Amino acid sequence: MAEGSVAETKETLAGVGYLADEPAALVSFLAQRLEKPVLVEGPAGVGKTELAKALSRATGRELIRLQCYEGLDEAKAMYEWNYRKQLLRIQAGGDQGGWGEVQDDIFAADFLLERPLMQAIVSPEPVVLLIDEIDKTDQEFEAMLLEVLSDFQISIPELGRVESKTHPVVLLTSNNSRELTEALKRRCLYLWLDYPELEHELEIVRLHSPDLPETVARKLVEIIGMVRALDLKKPPSIAESIDWARALLLLGAQDIDSDTFRDTMSIIVKHRTDLDVVAERVGVKLGLAEGTLGAPST
Ligand SMILES: Nc1ncnc2c1ncn2[C@@H]1O[C@H](COP(=O)(O)OP(=O)(O)OP(=O)(O)O)[C@@H](O)[C@H]1O
Ligand SMILES: [Mg+2]
């Protein structure tokens, strides 16, 4: 997929079920051509993680995923020494060489446990590396990542430098729960993924639920847009639009009237206080619209 143009990248991604907008297609194209990591930021559920998965499918590259969390350290992200195996080797002893030989032995690649970053660097086939939710880690972890991101290499004190031969495509995602360091941002291309435009979201919903009647799908994304415009704790994401569409399809809904909306709105709104706001502002609006439509014309 690396060959070709932005338009081609967009098409290939669509072919594997990801409808990228222009900026996402452009950055995906450049990431492969410039061999630079991409930092993808945006609210929850807008397709950040999915973009990495789609790139893996589109390029036929294996996806290696590092899921970040608070307290994640080098040993879990890069590599650690296999202490148990080292111990066994020590216990087995050396033939004549003594300790020196044993020491050389136990700090060889054989005794290394490769974690996702190391796996991506040493992989003989080019891979897609997803570093998911980097904002959950701390700044020290970010600092540690810099070497991997700018030079595609990892330095192991006992072994030396391990360099990547096949340059992974690297995607980092962040929900913006904290500001990332300038040093990290400088090394990355940047993509801000936001809630999509109405027509774009309609396409995504229809891709995931092709059997949902067009009118229902359109009304769904219109309502989702209305709900997002309210000041909610957690606005509905694309993930929720897709779930809602699936539910409506299962329920055989031919329209989203105020009753259907009331019964199913907990699929898209998941906070007690948000539910109240949405029921009042959107539910009532739908009810009023029906009232006007159904009212006898005098
Ligand atoms: N452009 C798109 N084309 C097709 N499907 C999409 C697109 N964007 C999002 N989706 C779908 O939306 C859902 C949510 O996407 P994803 O899990 O990637 O969100 P996220 O941004 O990583 O969210 P979080 O921040 O919560 O991890 C997925 O099921 C994905 O398939
Ligand atoms: Mg995600």
Structure notes:
It is a single chain. The protein has 298 residues and is an alpha/beta fold. The chain is built from 14 helices and nine strands. The chain has helices at 6-15, 22-34, 48-59, 74-77, 83-92, 99-106, 116-122, 139-151, 182-186, 198-208, 214-229, 238-250, 258-264, 272-294, and strands spanning 38-41, 62-67, 79-81, 112-114, 127-132, 153-156, 160-163, 169-174, 189-192. The strands form three sheets. Strands 2-5-8-1-9 form a five-stranded parallel beta sheet, with helices on both faces. It has a two-stranded antiparallel sheet with strand order 3-4. Helix 5 runs antiparallel to helix 6 (99-106). The longest helix has 23 residues, at 272-294. The radius of gyration is 25 Å and the shape is elongated. The structure holds adenosine-5'-triphosphate (ATP) and magnesium ion (MG).
Low-confidence stretches: none
Name the overall outline. Answer: elongated
Strands of the largest sheet, in order across it? Answer: 2-5-8-1-9
Q: How many helices does DSSP assign?
A: 14
- Per DSSP E runs of 2 or more residues, the count of β-strands stands at 9
- Calculate the terminal CA-CA distance, rounded to whole Å: 63 Å
How big a fraction of the residues is strand?
5-15%
H/E element sequence = HHEHEHEHHEHEHEEEHEHHHHH
